[in-house]
Known about the structure:
- By secondary structure, this protein is an alpha+beta fold.
- It has a single domain (10-198), classed as Hypothetical Protein Pfu-838710-001 (Beta Barrel).
- Helices cover 26% and strands 41% of the residues.
- The chain has six helices and ten strands, in the order βααβββββαβαβββαα.
- The protein has helices at residues 21-30, 36-39, 92-103, 117-126, 171-180, 191-198, and strands at 10-17, 41-50, 56-61, 64-74, 77-87, 90-91, 114-115, 130-144, 147-156, 159-168.
- The strands form two sheets. Strands 1-5-4-3-2-8-9-10 form an eight-stranded antiparallel β-barrel, surrounded by five helices. It has a two-stranded antiparallel sheet with strand order 6-7.
- A hairpin with a 5-residue loop joins strand 2 (41-50) and strand 3.
- The longest helix has 12 residues, at 92-103.
Amino acid sequence: MKIGEQSKPRFEFRTFGHNFDKSAKLMAQLSVPVPEKVRERESDEIYILSKTNNINNTKIRNGKMDIKTFVQTIDGLEQWNPLMKAEFPITKEVLEKEVFPAFQVDTPLLIQGLYTLKEFLSIVVEHSKLKAIKVHKKRFGYMVNDTICEVGHILINGVKVVSINSESTELNDIKKTISDLELEGVENINYLQAIKRIIGWIDKPLSN
């Protein structure tokens, strides 16, 4: 695999907690050189959470909405596939036919032809089953066993957490990476699950 490469749907291992220093150190030691642009990245994003949806992951970054959908779980690893990408302003038609159905909620009455990001977020705020969550990410990229890896220092509505992950189209490469990073037995948690736990929509702790 190559970082940034678009390929068939990837499998992912990701977990969230407060300290993965040992695994992060191992990741840095085992990584092959990676492009400078992914060694360290920082971004402000907005995740749209729905009380009725756990299979479509929606985030907004740099004025663009990105929705990916859960495909399957094999050996505890989740496979996700891009579902939709759109840039604000977004048309009423796209919101009605693609965005709100992905949230698995009733579509509110939309009277405009186009919606800016601010206008869309206003709709989300008013919706009883949706919530917009501010997420700040500082991410450090690596490549171990031909899997794309990352350590992230994350603020989720101001709550500090750490994320560590490995993703690839090849299951066995991720399994070896999990073993090499001494993460065997650690729960695989995606962003939807982690955010819902932090805001109290799911009554479960993070990995540590």
